Amino acid sequence: MARFALAGLQSAAQVGRFKNPLGFYNQTRDVEFTRLSILLPQSIYFDRIRSLGVAGDGISLYLEERMKGGNLRAQVGIGQLRHEHDGGRFVGALSAASATARFDSQDPAFGDGEFVFQPAILSLQWNEELWSLTAEYHHVDGTGWLPLKDNPDPSETQRRWSMLLFQLAVRF
């Protein structure tokens, strides 16, 4: 990793494998204290393809501007624009990515396949001393992560829909 700093603006470039900045919890989802619940929303933090979503190989650029009203961060690669106001009391982030996985079968009985993952996630958080309120919005394109027990007839599911998730955490 190479780091640069100039009058409040910090930047860095990473080459290799790095954690993907999707939503609030993807980069730290293995650290239990950082997430507020046992289960994370599967439309955003999809455990079935966890290895594709958590980390990626390539180049990532990171910029941070420290301002009077808070910190503004941007990460390009799999992208996230994040603003923290009042020392992290209010946090907002917009995350987006595009990843494609292909399978070329040697056996014609199986056929070829392709998986496209293009999330866009809006995350908002309000933190106080004894509680945190988090909201995340995600437009969903697909039904692959829906449980079959709850949706036994695939023809009755909708491919495109929106999910708004709220989470309140109270600390004692």
Structural description of this entry:
This protein has 172 residues and is mainly β. 3% of the residues lie in helices and 52% in strands. The chain has one helix and eleven strands, in the order ββαβββββββββ. It has one helix at residues 50-54, and strands at 2-6, 9-19, 55-67, 70-76, 79-85, 90-96, 99-103, 113-117, 120-127, 131-141, 160-170. The strands form two sheets. A nine-stranded antiparallel β-sheet has the order 1-2-3-4-5-6-9-10-11. It has a two-stranded antiparallel ribbon with strand order 7-8. The chain is globular. The chain starts with a strand and ends with a strand. The model has no long low-confidence stretch (mean pLDDT 79).
Q: What characteristics describe this protein?
A:
mainly beta, 172 residues, two-stranded antiparallel ribbon, nine-stranded antiparallel beta sheet, single chain
